[in-house]
Amino acid sequence: MLDINYIRTNPDKVKQACEHKQLDSSVVDSLLQADEQRRSLKKQIDEVRCRINANADKIKIQVHAGDQPDLDLIKCGKQLKIELKQVEPKFKQAVAVYDNLMLSIPNIPADDVPVGEDETGNQVIRQVGELPQFEFSPLPHQKIMEKLDWVDIVRAVRIGGFRSYFLKKQGMLLEQALLRYALDFMAKQDFTLMTVPALVNESAMVGTGFFPWGKEDHYQTQDGQFLVGTAEVALTSYHMGETLTEENLPIKLAGISPCFRREVGSHGKDTQGIIRVHQFTKVEQMVLTVADEAITKKWHEIMVGFVEEMLVELDLPYQVLLMCTGDMGAGQRKKYDVEVWFPSQNKYRETHSASYFNDFQTRRLGIKYQAKDGTTKYAYSLNNTVAASPRLLAAIVENYQQADGSVKIPKVLQKFM
């Protein structure tokens, strides 16, 4: 959520952000109209309450003097209360409209984010690692895993529907090794490790900026709660409504959780294998820091660096992309994607996303801190994938496949097997 004062003074810049993120810019004018109505009605309420108080004071003076209250004053007081009751519902409705529109305003992209309509506008920042050379035609991960009896998609679909899967035997253990490796890695970076709720209230989804834009992508229960698509939701919401101190920052959390996504709009995409599924497991990193974008940018690079160090240790070729405005989330100020090489597809595929938001999320969540100078500010938030399985697992299987159909275990994972 942006500061309303910023929107009032920079409406054209906010409209431009909407357009660059492929969103309807007319919401800005609607918001400003609602804001004006809200403030006008608030002014009316304040004026009526002021008159009520002034009228009541006059009656108190008469009573203290031992006189009977003036009937005109009593009549005026009743009339003012009626007037207040007429205005208050209008104000309440105006606030509801205003609050809803405020949630529909996207974050402003950082100055160094390229403008583009879709993924074609993304920029490759760097490519790291040598692409594997095979003396045989590399197989897709699902074929390798099916031959090794590491995955069963046929029975899974029968039980759980499309995009379901069973991981079995060494395939299941390899996934657990990957996740444990990721957790150990983040512990070495002095992150607090957490298991987090996978079922959250709507306020957490709204607060982290997944709603209102991505509501159709999430599963909802009959109790009105939602299954998360990432541990980011719970990690970022952990300090919801709290006022921290500058000495507390940065706060570094890493969480593991099951993740659920409906994959709306992905019909026909990645129908083979376990690249695009409804349920997966992910380790996520999240940082809260001071309200300084220069410091936030440093943390953004550090968090991407953690992922790159892991991929180097796993000996997986990858590339880092700077995402354009049209291929980033509404709430993100800047975003990198990290893509790992998939030999069977002869291309890189996204395995990690790293974003920073400034106070877009924390303003929604009410996460503040008391600065050293005594002022109260909203903290800034960042997050990045650490390891998401089974997609990263699939990348390992493809890159480490052997001519005899076996899969070599990456050295850094062997101790976990």
Tags for this entry?
20% strand, three-stranded mixed β-sheet, eight-stranded mixed β-sheet, elongated, BirA Bifunctional Protein, domain 2, Helix Hairpins, single chain, 41% helix, 2 domains, alpha+beta, 417 residues
What would you say this structure looks like, in words?
- The chain is α+β, with helices and mostly antiparallel strands and 417 residues long.
- The protein has 2 domains: 4-102, Serine-tRNA synthetase, tRNA binding domain (Helix Hairpins, Orthogonal Bundle), CATH 1.10.287.40; 119-416, BirA Bifunctional Protein, domain 2 (2-Layer Sandwich).
- The chain has helices spanning 4-9, 11-20, 26-64, 71-102, 141-147, 153-160, 169-188, 202-207, 232-237, 293-313, 360-365, 391-399, and strands spanning 123-128, 151-152, 166-167, 192-195, 199-200, 226-227, 243-245, 251-260, 279-289, 318-322, 334-342, 347-358, 368-370, 376-378, 380-389.
- The strands form 4 sheets. The chain has an 8-stranded mixed sheet. A 3-stranded mixed sheet has the order 7-13-14, with no helix packed on it. A two-stranded antiparallel sheet has the order 2-3.
